[in-house]
Every structure is written in structure tokens, then in C-alpha cells.
Amino acid sequence: MLPARLPRRRPASPGRGVRLRQRLRDRAPPARPRRRPVRGLPRARRAAARPRRTPRPRRARTGTPAARREAGGVPGLALGAARGPAHRKEPHVTTTPRPTHASRHSRIGTVGVLVCTHEERRLPLVTAAVASLRTQSDPPDHVLVMVDGDDTLRDTVAAALPSEDVRGMGHNQGVSAARNAGAEAIGTDWVVFLDDDAEADPDWMERLLEPLGPEGVIGASSRSEPIWDAPRPSWLPDEYLWAWGCSYRGMPTTRTRVRNPYGGTSVVRREVFLGLGGYDSAVGHHGDVVGGGEEALFGLRAARAEAGWFVFEPAAAARHHVPASRLTWGYLARRCYSEGVMKARLSALSGGDALGDERSFALGLPLATLRCAVRPATAPRAVGLVVATVCVLAGLVSGSLGGRLARLTRRRTTRG
Fold it and tell me: DSSP characters for 30-66?
């Protein structure tokens, strides 16, 4: 028998995930109406479907185009009005101002340049040398022109250089004596020597003074490039350009410590220079007498006194005039012979220890001669190498014999 009424079943409740989705849907904000796609509609309906944009008001231009450029190119800004902020932000660039000449070499003290001259016919060269100093990127604090001659020559040079400090020696005493007197009179911490027939490059002093920062460096010299007043002879070898006061083949190509500087384009600490007695006035050019070696003797005295050392700076360069009167075989022979005599004297004073550079130079001469001899274009230079080397050797022998004879004479005089 069936029951009269069946029990009612409770409706199934939604699951937890369904209830959570319903709750989130109830709390969510009403969805934005979807934008109708524009592509595919007619042009008129397409324009109506796009949202309208409010046009940006344009400023009225005032004044002429030149006035607007003066005002900064901003539309609506009249000439003389205050300029507002730029529309486009430019990148910030930091630039370091280039220091003045006083701040460049002030770290080492004052610097003066000494130019020595001895005859009137060199007056155009002296004028060019002084003019090259006035266009330096690091100008000197003082320029002194020392005239190695009488008062008439001094007055002539002073008239040609009215704005320069010109002084005289009274009579010709030689380039070494003139440099000593000029270093005594110039009064700066450093003395720069520039030959009267040389012209400095615009950055010569700036480069020359760079190695003087570290302690122990008492001087430096630069490269010297030739200016031929006449065509260069085919027999003139690059290895013997030092005979004409120019840089020669075999010199260092980087900043290097050297025994002595080249006096024609060099700088030295004035206190050390005067304390060691300066250059030997009996050595060097004197009038028409060709000489040399005063720088080497001074470098030897500085090394013995442990005063410091010298540096060769090839980045600094000056140009040296070579007159036609010196482009002869006779000048080459005289200059090389006097150099040999000086090297013999230097060897006697130092015991031969100071001639390391000369030995290295001499060992490279045979190979240089052979290299020039095998080529027809440079064969005359091989002859020049042989002649110059023979003259130097003759000077060495003569200087050595003369030195021994002088020492023997002094010994006999002392015993007697």
C-alpha cells in the first residue's frame, strides 16, 4: 500500500564557486558600452561614430618673424617680453671651462723665456721667434731678449722690439755667457731657452711644461724640426741633423728621461741652473766659432750634484731655421770635429760612464750607412755618414790626446 503523500525534497543550493561568482558580479560596476567598430561602416556613419575632440585654441602670432625669433620663437610672445619655460626640454650638458694660462703653469711657479742673439742680420729671425711666443696657448710670464753684442746692436734690437725687455752684454761673449747672464736677470722660477733662429709651435710651451710636475724633474727639452732656407743637400744624413740643431734619427719618440736637454728649445729650474754655475762659457758657439757641448757638461754636473734629472718631451715641437751658409761639407766637418773633442772631455770628466747614449748611437751607424748605400736615391747620404763619423772620431782622438797632455803638464808643474 503506497503512502498518501510523498515528502518534498529541498531544492539543491548552488555551490561555493557559483555563490562567489554571483557575489562578485553583483558588486562589479556596470560595464561600459562597447564602442561600435568603425571599420566597415559607410563614411558618414563612420564619422558620426568617432568621438568628437574639442579643438585646442591657438595663440595669435604677434610681431614680425624677426621679432618672434628674438623672443625665443614662442608664438604670441612679443619682443622684449619675459620668456617662459621652453616647450621642449633640452638635454643638460656639463662643460668644463678651459683654464687660463695662469692656472696651467701656476702649479710650478713663474716661467720666463730667454732669447739670445748676437748679430744684426739675425734681426728678422729674432722678431719671428718673439712673435711665436706671443701666440702661445700657455704664454710665458716674461720674455727677455739678451743681446750678445755692443750697445749699438742692443739699441737696434730694442727699436725693432719696442714692447719687449731687451738687454745687452756690452760685447760678444758667446751664447753660454749670454744665457747665464739672462738667467740671472730674468727673475722667474723657470727659465725657457729659445734660439733666436727658432719658432715655437702654438702649443710648444704648454707641452714643454707638462713633465715639470713631479719632484726631481729640473728641466725638459722639446723636438726641433728643420726649416731649410735652401734646398737640403742630398748627402745630409738624418742621423747627423743634431749638427744643425735639429732632432735626428735615433732620438726617443716618447717622453723619456735623458742626461741633458738641448739648450735651444729647453726649460730648466732657475735656482738649480744658477746654483750649478750655469753653462761653461768656454764651451759652445762664440761668434763665428762653431762649438757645442755646454748642455752635456751641465747635465753631468747636475747628475753629480744629485740635483735632479731632465726629460725629453717629443710632443712639444719648435722649428729651427737652417741657413744656406751651413749646408756645406766644411760646416759638417767642423761641427762634428768639435763634437768629438767635447765628447772626449766629457768622457774624461765622467770616466766614460756618461756616454751610454753616444755608444748606442755609434753602434747604429754601420747599419745606417749600409742601408743608405744599397739604395741609389740615398747613396749620397752614406757618404755623408762616413765623412761625419770620421770627423767625430778625429775629434775624439784629438780631444783625448790633448786632455792627457794637459794632465801630464799639470803634474810636472805641480812636482816642479
Answer: PPPPPPPP-TTS-HHHHHHHSPP-PPPPPPPP-S-HH
**HEC profile of 15-29:** CHHHHHHHHHHHHCC
Q: CA geometry: angle at 358 spanning 357 and 364, to 5°?
A: 95
- Where along the chain do its domains lie? 105-327, 328-416
Phi and psi torsions of 398, nearest 5°: -65, -45
Residue recorded with cell 757641448 = 293
The pLDDT assigned to 80 comes to 41
Q: What phi and psi, each to the nearest 5 degrees, are found at residue 314?
A: -70, -15
Residue 349 in this model has a pLDDT that exceeds 80? no
Q: How many residues does the chain have?
A: 416
- Give Cα 357 distance to the centre of its chain: 25
Which triple of cell numbers denotes residue 378?
Answer: 740615398
CATH level 3 topology of 105-327: Spore Coat Polysaccharide Biosynthesis Protein SpsA; Chain A (3.90.550)
Q: What confidence tens digit (pLDDT) does each residue in 312-336 have? A: 999 999 999 999 999 999 999 999 9
